[in-house]
Design goal:
The protein is of the alpha+beta class. The protein has helices at 13-29, 44-56, 68-81, 95-99, 106-119, 144-154, 161-173, 232-242; strands at residues 4-9, 35-40, 61-66, 84-89, 122-130, 135-136, 139-143, 178-184, 187-200, 222-228, 253-258, 260-263, 270-273, 276-280, 283-295. The two termini are 36 Å apart.
């Protein structure tokens, strides 16, 4: 029996890019699967409902055409139902697609997916699970970077990456370190002043920034990157290394690994995972090995 697939398209992803290329992607996929249902969604609620309808009819593969927010919703669906996931990058971040080795061009990614389906190239990857909350495939962060997300989400102008640039400038102006307790596999560390923390199942977030450069979504562990008390000048000086992964060599950065991580008391920080808001600390997360089947192969950071 061949694959029964659903392709979920979030037309607004990538400033409308996902909607524009959806038809061409579907044409390619129809030659590789027995049955393809195309679902266009404009909201998280609609996405969940329509994916549930597709699963009720029998589904082997979910193909998400969109960015990391769209993929995040697909991960929730697939992890809870044992359905395989494939990603066609059509957003602004595309960090899970990058980890799975997908070409950056969505039509080239569709061709690569067709080849993976025909060769039955599948991989099982780990996922993060927030206690009492969602799965995440990428990075959970809190501190400076999540404050930037909070501010950018409140802004109505400008659209696109420029909005995040302005949010970074605004948050640098009000930068404050905060106390943070971190428990990694039962070992507690209390930090009197921390600037941010990232818990990575994959290396990248924010559209290709290797915040946890050695993270591997097949090893059963998170990589944790903690930035201690940093000044504005410290953060500015870290930026060049952040794009190459060399920031972990900075004297203010600590890199560790663990399967279970708890971020302690309410210190005013909000956690984000896969770019989606989780909520204020405290938060506890667990790396769940082999939680999701994907088409493609994991590539190194």
């Amino acid at each position: 029996m061949g694959l029964r697939a659903a392709m979920v398209v979030h037309p607004a992803s990538g400033l409308g890019r996902a909607g524009r290329i959806a038809g061409a992607v579907a044409d390619r996929l129809r030659g590789a699967v027995d049955d393809l249902v195309t679902v266009r969604v404009d909201s998280v609620e609609e996405s969940r409902r329509l994916m549930g309808d597709a699963h009720a009819a029998g589904l082997d593969l979910l193909v998400v055409v969109g960015g990391d927010g769209s993929v995040h919703q697909g991960v929730q669906f697939c992890a809870d139902r044992g359905v395989a996931l494939a990603v066609i990058p059509a957003g602004t971040g595309n960090d899970l697609a990058r980890t799975l080795g997908a070409p950056t061009d969505p039509l080239a990614a569709a061709d690569a997916l067709v080849a993976d389906i025909r060769a039955d190239r599948r991989t099982r990857i780990d996922l993060g699970k927030v206690e009492g909350g969602p799965w995440f495939a990428g990075v959970l962060c809190a501190g400076f970077d999540s404050a930037v997300n909070e501010r950018a989400n409140r802004m109505r102008w400008p659209r696109g990456p420029r909005r995040y640039d302005l949010a970074i400038v605004a948050e640098l102006a009000r930068l404050r370190a905060a106390r943070l307790s971190v428990v990694e596999d039962g070992t507690r560390a209390d930090h009197s002043a921390a600037t941010q923390i990232a818990i990575g199942n994959v290396p990248h977030y924010g559209g290709g920034i290797p915040i946890c450069p050695a993270a591997d979504p097949t090893d059963g562990l998170f990589d944790i990157t903690l930035v201690g008390r940093a000044t504005r000048l410290d953060l500015v000086r870290m930026l060049p290394g952040l794009r190459t992964g060399r920031h972990v060599e900075h004297r203010l950065v600590t890199a560790t690994r663990a399967r279970e991580v708890s971020l302690g008391e309410d210190n005013g920080w909000v956690a984000y995972a896969d770019g989606e808001r989780i909520g204020p600390l405290p938060v506890r997360v667990t790396c769940v090995p082999n939680a999701l089947e994907v088409f493609g192969r994991v590539v190194s950071g």
